[in-house]
Write a structure and sequence with these properties.
The complex is a heterodimer. Helix content of chain A is 76%, strand content 0%. By secondary structure, chain A is mainly α. Chain A is built from ten helices and no strands. In chain A, helix 2 runs antiparallel to helix 3, helix 4 packs across helix 6 and helix 6 packs across helix 8. Chain A has one domain: MetI-like (MetI-like fold, Orthogonal Bundle), CATH 1.10.3720.10. By secondary structure, chain B is an alpha/beta fold. Chain B is built from nine helices and ten strands. The chains are: A mainly alpha, B alpha/beta. The interface between A and B is medium-sized, with 24 and 26 residues.
Chain lengths: 273, 244
Amino acid sequence: MDKNPFPTVGPKEISKIPGAEPHSRLDPWWWLVALVVVSVIALVFIQPDPFRRILVFVSDGIGVSILVTVITFIVVLIIGLIGGLGRLSHNRIVFGLFTLYVEVIRGIPLLVQLIWWYYAFPIILQQAGIEISVLIPRDIFAVSMAVLGLAVCYGAYMSEIYRAGIQSIPKGQMEAARSLGMTYFQAMRHVILPQAVRIILPPVGNEFIALLKDSSLVSAVAVADLTRRGREFMAMSFLPLQTWIMVALLYLVMTLFAARIVGWIEKKTKFER
Amino acid sequence: MSEPIIQIKNVTKHFGSVEALRGVSLDVNKGEVVVIIGPSGSGKSTLLRCINRLEEYDSGQIIVDGIPLDTAQNINAVRREVGMVFQSFNLFAHMTVLENIMLAQRVVRNRSRQEAENIAQELLRKVGIPDKAQAYPIQISGGQQQRVAIARALAMNPKIMLFDEPTSALDPEMIKEVLDVMLDLAREGMTMVVVSHEMGFARAAARRALLMDEGQIIEEASPEVLFSNPSHERTKAFLSKVLH
């Protein structure tokens, strides 16, 4: 778990109090984040043409990528909770529906799903009498469908993470809560989920980073994210090498940074059972 | 008010093809302490868990304090009146001892934080560990955890306490501290159903002891008679294995 290869404290100094482990030195992987940031800055200053131009051109795409990822992730956390509880339901219909959802979604490539939401779904709406292009502007529609597509897909995977997390809490915890008169939902909220959340934090963090990378697929459905802006610059400038070095480095900055944040939160919330 | 506080009428239960309870009937009066012994798999824990409906039964009827265990509403009503203590303590691992005792008071009984905390502190004094209020379950011994579990159940002011092998997971030197708390409870007139092989406790606290085997109550007598002079062959066979 601890990625620090140079521990500075001996085992005898480690306190037995949960959450009170002594602070280790700055996580060395922060240096990698710094290194990548420095290389971006170096490229921009040493060779402003084309690197500065690329950065300026794609910068609004960075914002779009982050925005799409963060909004989607919030939705995914909610879908995952509902889906996870649904997959644990004793009601056969509820269980069946959520299992169907998870199985179907996991069996279709994400790119195909995104294309489906953007090109096929509006036709279904149209036939139901809803003219989506009249209701919302084109670019907002594109982003909404992208968020929807990503959220529905990642929600399925997240459901399984929640389910596994909830199942990993010993059955006695729920029984004790119920025997005290708590309802199922009170027990979930006060007893099971607070413990499950700590357990699923690492995989949930991984999902966030995976989502950040997979958000590049929305470039295929008319969302002007970082990847799409990169493609546009390449088409305009005929500089694929420099463009994609820059775009790759920018993604790397974001994912490495996110990974450090996830690691930090994990450390903060670690507790012993 | 001579009606038994727990009425179990001909209850059956099976797990797959295994018959866990084959028509068990039992009445427990208010203020009575009943000890259930029997080999593992005899259905004694299942019977106990049926009383607060942690386990569903297939047929028969259980009435607790006049409330039949049939609708979900009734089940929650009964659970509020029935405290349960488990073999594995089942303290909420992410909460301090104090929070463990306060949670259900707050969300089920709607008590204020201050009131819940006062009750929790008082119960911790009663079970003899007021200094552990801020500890997490992992930081205290098994015997202390079990006493916290008892305090947590008592905080709901239950009319009945169920104990499912409360000392079986404890090191020998910790058994007494838990049994002492249970003895105090019995003396105060708490209605208790206890699944346990602690003969000393049964003799000191219980008026009735039951032997269960293969999902049935085989023999029922005072602890003195059941342990030293049982009339049933199966009781004798079981006791010869337990008493060495």
